[in-house]
Amino acid sequence: MDALTDFFESNSVADVTPQTCGRYVEQRGRSVGTARRELGVLRAAINYAHRNGLITRPVAVELPERPEPRDRWLTRDEAAWLLRASRTAQGRLYMPLFILLGIYTGRRKEAILSLRWPQVKLDTQTINFEIAGRRRTNKRRGVVRIAPELLRHLKRARRRGTDMGYVLHIDGKRIGDIKKGFAAACKRAGLTGVTPHTLRHTAATWLMQKGIDPWQAAGFLSMSMETLQRVYAHHHPDYLREAAESIGKRPQNVRVTG
Prior knowledge:
Layout: H1 2-8, H2 18-28, H3 32-51, H4 76-86, H5 95-105, H6 109-113, E1 120-121, E2 126-128, E3 143-145, H7 148-160, E4 169-170, E5 173-174, H8 179-189, H9 198-209, H10 214-221, H11 225-232, H12 241-246
Antiparallel strand pairs: 1-2, 2-3, 4-5
Helix pairs in contact: 2-3, 4-5, 4-8, 5-7, 5-9, 9-10
C-alpha cells in the first residue's frame, strides 16, 4: 500500500490507465512479480469501491504478464545444511522446526507461524492448518498428514508447549515474522536465492521427484492440479515419458476390410 500511495497519490481513479500502470512497474524498481501483486491490490480496492457504491464505475488495472514461476528448491544436502545453520542460540527452539514444517507439510509461512497446538493431532498424525472463522481464499491451507520424519520433532516440541499455545513461539508469544532469521540461516549455510516460500517449492518438488501420483501430491499440498502440473510436473520421472518413447516408433499398420 505504501508503494501504491507514493505513486498514485493525488490522482483520481480515472487516472488509472494501462499507461500509468506501465509507468508504475518501471518506476517501482522491483521484480515484475512484486509489481503485479501490488497492482492486484489496487485492482481489488477499486472493485471493492465500485461494489459498495463509492465510485460509479470500475476501471481496468493493467497487470504485467505473469513471470515464469521460480524453480528454486532445496536438495536433500541443502536442506541438511540449512537445518544445521538454523540451530543458533537465539532460534534453536523454533527455526529448525519452522524449516521442517515447511518442507514436510509444504505450507506457506503465515500458515505455519499461526499454527496452534489444538490444530495438531499427534494421535491421528494430522495437522489442520485451517483457522475457524478465517475467510477462505485461493491460498488454501487444508489438512495434512504428518510425515514420520516430522512427527518425532513435533512430539518433542509439544512437551515444551502449552495446550492452546503457538507451535512456534518466543517465550509463549507468537513470532511476528521469520524473514530476517531465515535469511541469516541461509547466509550461514551458503545458500542463495532461498526464501521461506522455497520450502513449499521443495515439498512439491520432492513429491514429484519421488513419482507420487499428482492427485495425491496436490491434495497433500492443498494445491490446485493446474498449479502442480504447470510448475512442478517436469520433476516427475514419468513426465512426457510416453510421448518421448512413442515419437520415434513406426505407426502400426491398420488393415481395412470392406
